[in-house]
Amino acid sequence: MTDPHQWLEDVDGAAALDWVRARNAVTEDELAGSEEFRRLESELRAIYDSQDRIPVLAKRGEWFYNFWRDAEHPRGLWRRTTLAEYRKDSPAWETVLDVDELNRLEGENWVWHGVEFLRPDQPRCLVALSRGGADADVTREFDVESKTFVEGGFERPEAKGQLSWIDEDTVYLVTDTGADSTNLAGYARLARRWRRGTPMEQAEVVFEGPADNAGYGIRAMRDRTPGFERDLLLHYLDSRNSVLYVADESGAFVPLDVPDSADKDVHRQWLLLGLREDWSIGGRTHPAGALLVADLDEFLAGGRNLDVLFEPTASTALEDVTCTRDHIVMTVLEDVSSKLVVAHHGDDGWSTRPFGGLPEFGSIHAAAVDDEAGDELWLVVTDYLSPSTLMLGDVAPGAGAPEVLRSEPEFFDASTHVTEQHFATSADGTRVPYFLVRPRDRAWDGTSPTLLYGYGGFEISLTPGYAPAVGKGWLEAGGTFVVANIRGGGEYGPAWHQAALRENRPRAYEDFAAVARDLIASGITSPEHLGIRGGSNGGLLTGNMLTQYPELFGAVVIQVPLLDMRRYHLLLAGASWTGEYGDPDKSEDWEFIQRFSAYHLLDEVAGQLPPTLLLTSTRDDRVHPGHARKFMAKLLETDQPALYHENIEGGHGGAADNGQRAHMDALYLTFLRRHLMPATDPVA
């Protein structure tokens, strides 16, 4: 099969970048030239740079660390404070690393990628930095007391991978070292033990995955919890399956005899298993979606006594698990709204109870403050119209109600809107939930400009959350915002995800179309006022809606997308997603994959499609920018109304700093307002 646009896959090729610059210029001229665009971009930038945003904390020893970007620090400050100071209206922060200053000194364009401490009470840490926001990054040893990188310390060159502490003089090294060190998806397949003062090339190989594997690579780590020290290694087989290894007394990694498809975690003495498939063990069958717990040492010795902490129902699913010192905290979705359930092991075994004092509608995000030292939780509660609130809670019995530490301001006027949940009926009869955020007083006459958002893949749930850009740029202008919880996501557990895998992928698109039709039938909107947006797998979604259901929409936004499903597995990390979509090199798989390869479906489209905006990033080294480039080239060939913008930086997120983020968001919002709100055309 010959592809005349394959030359656009040359990411940094001169001809391809000339093509990108020409397309960017057209889009900038079309969308970014008006006073209204500049006003919107400025408003969004002010939100992203606001000093009133909630600084997210990570406790290390007695310090509470935060990474922060604003107008004066576009690439960000890594800083710290105390909890007592944080409770003040204007806390004092101590800067540990200024990434903008580092870029100035080194002539680089570093983007912060995170940090791992040796121990909470030791000053050494491993800082990861990415050029331009790509997934590939470098790791460098840093001293938080001297606030300098350690001369001659551990340093990993740019690649997809990691360093992780074993002790103060040893790390686990997982990285691309060339010469057959990566798998089919471009992720490192070797784990090494690297001792201080020795060349990286001489690091001892302690694990080797197969070269023909297409997973996300390897994570090797030492659990340093006092009294429960052990070495662990997680080998990802693909996007859904992995094997957990535990090192024995000789240091050899031994695989656990548990399902590859299960989520696996270890906390203190406990092994936690989140099932994605039914599992029969110990004379009992546990359903997909259940959370099981076992004593790890007993399990390694052959014991198969597993306790059930959660079992799903028709309306509930396990969304997340976090562990404090003495408790396991489960975030449970009930028809896509969050609740917390706390499990504790006592003299009589495991018991569970709800954690109260939190809103009954919306989303709750829970994370342990210090899982070695206590039972406190960071709690962030939010919904579509309520600014996020950060609380400090304690799950120990009798600890009292959570303490409100901070709340974001209202970044847009939400008083004109209400949030509702509705259900549409898909082509096969499945009830598909969606959230509707609409003007409370607007007539249901089919004229409401409506933005419909979706994802539908990789068991990722779309839960209610405050979205200032959508609020400022869309809701305040009188728009309606809709989030569709289509199959392929995790809103109702593994079965909801698996219902749209591989040959069943079109079910996700049928669900999305069903929500669109429900909005139209109910009188909320009409095709000329209905726009859609999705990114990554959601970009594949909106690409398929454009090519298969164009009559339903007045405008389409496709961001950092997969689109060419014939070659996706050959581009960057694409091989790791064959479990989700199928393998196009297998004729039996290509038979069904071609039914949702939007790039090829364009060849079958007759007539004019709705206006389309494609957004991507040159530095996206996860989903190849060639997908968006080639799709745009085909649209141009047939004179379809389409615009294209490619940020030279940004990685898979599309933007490397708040300025780039504001610009990209203002582009898509201006585009949608132009086509769906003709009476308030911001560029007219």
Automatic annotation (TrEMBL):
It comes from Tessaracoccus rhinocerotis. Residues 475-676 form the Peptidase S9 prolyl oligopeptidase catalytic domain. GO terms for cellular component: cytosol. The lineage of its organism: Bacteria, Bacillati, Actinomycetota, Actinomycetes, Propionibacteriales. Residues 2-397 form the Peptidase S9A N-terminal domain. PANTHER family: PROLYL ENDOPEPTIDASE. One of its GO terms (biological process) is proteolysis. InterPro entries: AB_hydrolase_fold, Pept_S9A_N, Peptidase_S9_cat, Peptidase_S9A, Prolyl_oligopep/macrocyclase. Pfam families: Peptidase_S9 (PF00326), Peptidase_S9_N (PF02897). It comes from the Bacteria. Keywords: Hydrolase, Protease, Serine protease. This is S9 family peptidase. One of its GO terms (molecular function) is serine-type endopeptidase activity.
